[in-house]
Amino acid sequence: MMCKRNIVFFLQQFVASGQTLGLTHPPLIPPLSPMMRMFPPIRMCVLLVCLASTALCVDVSACRADAPTEVAAEVAAHAVDAPSTDDEPTLVSTCDHDCAAAADFIADSNVCVCDCDRVFLVSTRHLTANACCAPLVDIPFRIWRLDSGTPCEITHNDYLASLSPDRPVVFYVHGNRMPVADVVSRSTMIRNRIRMRGARGPIDWIIYSWPSEKETIGVKDFRLKADRCDAQGLYLASFLRQHVQTAIPMAMIGYSFGARVATGALHALAGGKLSGRTLPDPPVVGANVRVGLVAPAIESKWLGGNGYHGCATKNMDQLVLLYNRRDVVLKRYWLLEKIRRDTALGYSGPTTFASRVDGTRLPVRSRDCASIVKLRHSEIDYYQGGCNAGIDMARLINGIRSISF
């Protein structure tokens, strides 16, 4: 009897405390009916049920108050920067969490982490963006060497003379809405994260800078940049050809529309057409370029046998694909051509790919980073947190092998 009285006293104190705290749903304890007085066990059961329902009401109220804020924050957080997680990336066994934190700090500080690297900036921002009248012979690229402390512009011939088959070349092609003032800092961040995740040996890094500054708003701006990708693909294909001729092993990393430029270049290099034009020189296949695509803004079937970039795989050795099934920008990729069935490769994930030059199946390693990147279309998010694209790109680069024909 004493135990029952203590429980009733506790419940009364709980009600009083709830009212003191200003709960919007205070505990509701019904008056004791004659039957409840007659049967104490029933009374105790009813009181305990009321207590449980009160706590549930308080928790639900809190969730309802917080949920709109969280959803709004998540939606507001997505921004344009521009494979399932079964194969979740992990740091090498010799590197603990403190090592990973140090790597992130160095990467964010824009410090070159390897003195043996050379960094070049190749710009086409001064060239016409119209593929129909783009120059395809003696293209006047502007080239700077950046690893000497201050930018130093060099000639095209001097750049080509500096290349060596012992130093693989890694092309980085940025995405849309990347002003020229941010190109070097962004590429340095990507390069440092790849280096700190295990890329080995001396590397020549090429920053391919194309005219992608924001010029208008909404879909109109995206359509404008999508149209420019064909001209950029032709330019880059001509530049790649000069590396193939000197047997330079290569890798390419492209983000968003930069991925569209990269695959277009490999397609044009193999003799494929872009905007109805081909390179004036004979086609080149078997370049064994290793390709990493991050949130690629290309149609999901373009790399198939009959796709718009269907010849690209003839110059690929391996493909790494990082995509996001929650990307709110790539989800609306179909608006570019206003064809509902069109989906972006960076949204759908791997679909169909043409074979390599020897007829073998293209090795594709893909991961869905939706759980990390969430709604955003942001390159940086792919290189931090659980997605950690730097590991995938480091493995890709370490596997570069010499060109063979």
Structure description:
By secondary structure, this protein is an alpha/beta fold. The chain folds into 2 domains: about 1-75; about 95-400, Rossmann fold, CATH 3.40.50. The protein is built from 12 helices and 9 strands. The protein has helices at about 1-20, 35-40, 40-75, 95-110, 155-160, 180-195, 220-245, 255-270, 345-350, 370-375, 380, 390-400, and strands at about 120-125, 140-145, 150-155, 170-175, 205-210, 250-255, 290-295, 315-325, 365-370. Strands 3-2-1-5-4-6-7-8-9 form a 9-stranded mixed beta sheet, sandwiched between helices. Helix 4 runs antiparallel to helix 6 and helix 6 packs across helix 12. The longest helix has about 40 residues, at about 40-75. The radius of gyration is 29 Å and the shape is globular. It starts with a helix and ends in a 7-residue tail after the last helix.
- Give the overall silhouette: globular
Q: Nearest-angstrom radius of gyration?
A: 29 Å
CATH topology of the largest domain: Rossmann fold
CATH superfamily of the largest domain: Alpha/Beta hydrolase fold, catalytic domain
SS elements, strand count = 9
**What percent strand?**
5-15%
Number of domains: 2
Q: Which structural category fits the helices and strands?
A: alpha/beta
Query: What is the average per-residue confidence, as pLDDT, rounded to a whole number?
Result: 79
Give start-end ranges of low-pLDDT stretches.
Answer: 1-8, 14-38, 49-80, 82-111
Q: What's the CATH class of the largest domain, please?
A: Alpha Beta
- Assign the CATH architecture of the largest domain: 3-Layer(aba) Sandwich
Q: Please summarize the sheet with the most strands.
A: 9 strands, mixed
Major β-sheet strand ordering: 3-2-1-5-4-6-7-8-9
